[in-house]
Design goal:
Strands 2-10-9-6-5-3-4 form a seven-stranded mixed β-sheet, with helices on both faces. Strands 8-7-14 form a three-stranded antiparallel β-sheet, with no helix packed on it. The protein has twelve helices and 17 strands. It has 358 residues and is of the alpha/beta class. The structure holds ligand T4K. The site of ligand T4K has 23 residues, from helix 3 and helix 4.
Length: 358
């Protein structure tokens, strides 16, 4: 069976060496040495000032909202994984959707402006599938309206735009290091900021607000990453260049063979892309269902990322209607991509897709 992705597993002997260290020290979590080593290596690799590792990408978002003391309404995209919306609702914030651009699949800055009210405290855009949002426009809108910006950069590991890492935009950016991601730590995530005060606050928030054996400086939760996860991250980071090359060649292969028949996401020309997903846009939902069914009959399981459009969720009130997101969401399909997927397998996937649509 070929699934939409396959977690990258580093060399077992290397992981074992780290696990031996954990056993020798008996230190399993709570800011251990492997976590500190990974934080330093990632911050350097990505070129960011503060990178704070956390338990997952959802908690990264929730802690970011708390650190920036968001209130009331937050403008966000309806075209994303459920976590972008659910984390806002979970924190008692009201998600207000701004529709997306049909080519980039990212939040449309013109729509953001229309949704600003006197209750808006922030904007939470997503770099969808790793394609950078229009960050300069968004920062301008935020500045003019005194709003915070938290980029949900769950898919945007090692993406650059306008000559800088995309994570350096906004007040905070968050990453997900879930097992399905380009770079992963089994479960995990990170909070990135260039602001020293915010970084200090985040460090307290992820550890119950505790700053010393007898001091609790603020409210906090438990959002810590453990040493086993950090060990996996250290091993995967060693192999990241190979992982990127593999994903890039798979993406280019699909594009060369399919672009005459399906639509590919329009990637920002100023960006270095990470090729972490292969979304294809079909003509309509009926065609998508046909393609999906044919692939499944052949033991190939693509995924409808992202369906349904988040403006259809029952728990989001008041009811909102985002026509562009609903349309894209109804006809987008992510094809399999991961290190180890062979050219023969790619050819098989491509021929099944083509047979279903031509
Ligand atoms: N913001 C955005 C924009 C996000 O996309 C996400 C997560 C978040 C925030 C929240 O971050 P986290 O709290 O998750 O760190 C997967 C991931 O679980 C999720 O992290 C990710 N986005 C989302 C796009 O994809 P599912 O429900 O599709 O996962 P699942 O279990 O169906 O796995 C997909 C495929 O991956 C499987 O068919 C096979 C492969 N797989 C999966 C697992 C769990 C493996 O090879 N190994 C594994 O261990 O959500």
């Amino acid at each position: 069976m070929i699934l939409v992705t396959k977690s990258y597993l580093p060399e077992r002997a290397k992981l074992d060496q780290y696990i031996d260290k954990i056993y020798a020290s008996g230190w399993l979590t709570n800011r251990g040495c492997l976590l500190r080593e990974l934080e330093q290596r990632l911050a350097k690799f990505l070129g960011v000032r503060h990178l704070i590792l956390v338990a997952n990408g959802s908690l990264a978002l929730q802690v970011a909202y708390k650190a920036l003391e968001l209130t009331g309404e937050v403008i966000t995209t309806p075209f994303s994984f459920a976590a972008t919306t659910s984390t806002l609702a979970w924190e008692g914030l009201t998600p207000v959707f701004a529709d997306i651009d049909p080519q980039s699949f990212n939040i449309d800055p013109k729509q953001i402006v229309k949704k600003i009210s006197n209750k808006t405290s922030a904007i939470v855009p997503v770099h969808v599938f790793g394609n950078p949002c229009q960050v300069l426009e968004i920062e301008k809108i935020a500045k003019e309206n005194n709003l915070k910006v938290i980029y949900d950069a769950a898919h945007a590991f090692d993406v650059h735009c306008n000559g800088d890492n995309i994570l350096n935009y906004g007040d905070i950016s968050t990453l997900s290091f879930h097992a399905t991601k380009l770079f992963h730590t089994i479960e995990g995530g990170a909070i990135i900021t260039s602001d020293d005060v915010i970084a200090h606050k985040v460090r307290n928030l992820i550890n119950f607000g505790i700053t010393g054996p007898t001091t609790i400086e603020s409210l906090g939760t438990n959002a810590k990453m453990n040493e086993f996860e950090a060990a996996m991250g250290l091993c995967v980071l060693d192999d990241i260049e190979k992982i990127k090359v593999d994903r890039r060649s798979i993406w280019l292969y699909y594009k060369a063979k399919l672009e005459k028949y399906v639509i590919f996401q329009e990637i920002d020309e100023q960006a270095t892309y990470n090729y972490s997903y292969v979304p294809i846009l079909l003509e309509n939902e009926a065609q998508l269902i046909k393609v999906e069914q044919r692939l499944k009959e052949n033991q190939i399981i693509p995924r409808r990322y992202f369906y349904p459009s988040l403006d259809t969720l029952d728990y989001v009130t008041p009811v909102q209607f985002m026509p562009v997101s609903r349309d894209i969401s109804s006809r987008i399909l992510c094809l399999p991509t991961y290190s180890g997927l062979t050219v023969a397998e790619l050819d098989r996937i491509i021929s099944i897709v083509l047979a279903a649509i031509i």
